[in-house]
Amino acid sequence: MNLFVCIDDTDNLESIGTGELLENMMREAAVRGLAKSGFVVRYQFLIDDAIAYTSHNSAMCCTAQTDDRAAFTAFCESYLRHNAAEGSDPGLCVLTDDEALDYAPLIVFGRLAQTQVLTKAQAYAAAKAFGDDVHLSEHGGTGIGVIGALAGAGLRAGKAEGRIKGKLYPPMDRVEWTTEEFASAYGVGRFADEDGSEITENLTLRFELPTKLVYQAGKITAILVEKDGVRMPKPKIKKNKG
Fold first, then answer.
1. Could you give the CA distance from residue 78 to residue 6 in angstroms, rounded to a whole number?
2. What does the pLDDT profile of the chain (242 residues) look like in tens digits?
């Protein structure tokens, strides 16, 4: 069975982030033989004083494959209860990944979360329409993380654009690549310009600086930019805090 797994509001200012917690949870699930998981996508939601969030108000979502949904979901619930940070308000969503499902109501909910202040009641009402195809639960504090967890799962189900967790770092011994070679080495399924226009030709690029991949048009996408006549993956440089 294929699933979307999304968690939100699991951290505090001193703890590991929600994305790292999700990766750790899925790694443990794999060790226990409960599930295999895919890459993690970050979805950004509204920043507003009326919303309690740690730093960015974003949820983290991945895909999972399991033969025992009930056991896997129970494991996720237990993992969050025992590993979410003190003072956090964790929410968990486990949603069936099935093209036959009409995710439109959840996609709408996810988009609303990016522009409006939503409530737990709205989240549970949106989830209720999906019956056994969605699990939504809270695991500490106020439990408001269920809002972002459901919204993130809905956006992922709708193939909405998001950032893939982590950076790619260039290897020490190679700079020049073709896009076909880069795609094969890093699991990239699509290249695009900054405006989202897809690049299909096999170009030569230089990979000299760290970059972040994005989830766009339902695929792992590398954004390419041009500098001094040379194409390169869009650099992602850590900003100094001052």
1. 15
2. 999 999 998 766 677 888 899 999 999 999 999 999 999 999 988 776 666 655 567 899 999 999 999 999 999 999 999 998 888 889 999 999 999 999 999 999 999 999 998 999 999 999 999 999 999 999 988 888 999 999 999 999 999 999 999 899 999 999 999 999 999 999 999 999 999 899 999 999 999 999 999 999 999 999 999 988 899 999 986 654 43
DSSP codes of every residue in the chain = -EEEEEEES---TTS--HHHHHHHHHHHHHHTTS-EE---EEEE----TTS--SSS-EEEEEEEE-S-HHHHHHHHHHHHHHHSPTT---EEEEEE--TTS--HHHHHHHHHHTTS---HHHHHHHHHTTGGGEEEEE-STT-THHHHHHHHHHHHHTT--EEESS-B---TT--EEEHHHHHHHHT--EEE-TT--EE-S--EEE--S-B--EEETTEEEEEEEEETTEEEEPB-PPPPP-
> How many other CB atoms are there within 10 angstroms of residue 170's CB atom?
16
Beta bridge partners of residue 64, listed in sequence order: 3, 37
Residue from 203, 199, 210, 201 nearest 233 by CA: 210
Choose the CATH number for 2-163 among 3.30.70.2200, 2.30.130.30, 3.40.50.720, 3.40.50.300.
3.30.70.2200
Whether 109 contacts 68, CB under 8 Å: no
Question: For the whole model, what pTM was predicted?
Answer: 0.88
